[in-house]
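Hi V.,

Quick status before I head out on leave. The structure for the redesign project is tokenized and pasted below; the design run finished overnight.
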């Protein structure tokens, strides 16, 4: 199982976290693989060390893969979680009250967005 943190809006518009897993199947010598998932585009990103983006919605449903650095995401309910290089999130809060994201280390941070239909 491959861990993913889902960030979504509930029926009241509040942002929440949900831990989920993508199933993997044994593919022999090449390792464990998931089924193919649909994707629309890939976006490479770099932000400044002082990145602190107030509450906002994801612009579209997308995976976020952290390449380096560390972030903290805060929901509208005040729950905070920290994520580091290698963590994967599925951002689905395209409507509602949004989430806040800030860098935890004073370094430029790189990440990749993979948008999904």
């Amino acid at each position: 199982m491959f861990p993913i943190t889902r960030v979504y809006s509930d029926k009241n518009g509040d942002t929440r976290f949900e831990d989920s897993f993508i199933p993997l199947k044994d593919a022999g010598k090449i390792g464990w693989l998931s089924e193919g998932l649909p994707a629309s585009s890939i976006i490479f990103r770099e932000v400044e060390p002082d990145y602190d983006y107030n509450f906002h919605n994801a612009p579209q449903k997308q995976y976020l893969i952290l390449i380096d650095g560390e972030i903290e995401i805060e929901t509208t309910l005040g729950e905070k979680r920290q994520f580091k290089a290698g963590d994967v999130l599925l951002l689905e809060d395209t409507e509602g009250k949004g989430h806040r994201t800030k860098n935890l280390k004073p370094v430029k941070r790189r990440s990749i967005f993979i948008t999904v239909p």
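Above is the designed sequence. The CA atoms of residues 58 and 94 lie 5 Å apart.

G. will cover questions while I'm gone.

Best,
W.
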